[in-house]
Amino acid sequence: MLPVMIYLYIHELTFSFKKINELKIMKNISLYFVFILISVHMNLFAQKIKSKNNYVYQVREEKGDLNNDGKMDKIIVEMDTVDETRPLRLQIFLSQPNGKKLTLAVSSTKIIEPQYPVENQGKFNGYQIPNFFIEKGILSMWSEIKGGNITYDFKYQKGNFELIHVTKLTNNSTKGYVDENTIFTDAKFNLISGLRIETDGKLGSEKVLNKRKKIVLIRPLPKIQDFKFSDKKLY
Length: 235
Fold this sequence. Notes:
Layout (H helix, E strand, L loop, with lengths): L1 H51 L2 E10 L8 E8 L7 E7 L8 E6 L22 E5 L2 E8 L2 E10 L2 E12 L11 E8 L4 E8 L5 E8 L20
Antiparallel strand pairs: 1-2, 2-3, 3-4, 5-6, 6-7, 7-8, 8-9, 9-10, 10-11
């Protein structure tokens, strides 16, 4: 009877050790997978941070007083040289009352169209990078559009850069060039009053062919950080 009991005890002990080893193996496997998941997450997070820091090529810079404190502020436009679409980022730096260095007030990657948009299947969008100007506290962005150009005027008020005026010049040419028969449309949109005026005329002539007025109220005024390059169709 004793040998049988010893045998059963040894068998049970062996089984227990086996279960313990299996649990250890399962625990190690679980820890291994947790480690892999954490590593993947950290790697993706690092790539995300890195991707935000690829705007290293500066293509535009303009200085002027934007917040009416008598000090120079600055805007810069930088290109992401890693992303194949070549996106662009606008940043606005404002002076501070304490006289310290300029502080970043706005950063936007939506306001300027990438040079090689995804929807163009890798082809150039056909437009030059917008130009920026600062005059009398107004930040203006001049952009090429199909058949003409458009200028947006932003003013710093209530702690934001708000769109206050849009000027758009287009023409009806379908030949790829303009001549004496080309009709130009000059549209001026005052977003503060809501008055939008369109004037038609021919190249080299002061005669007004047609003039249209209407009131379009947009409230609240669009903020530069929310503004998208595709919004040109709205104005």
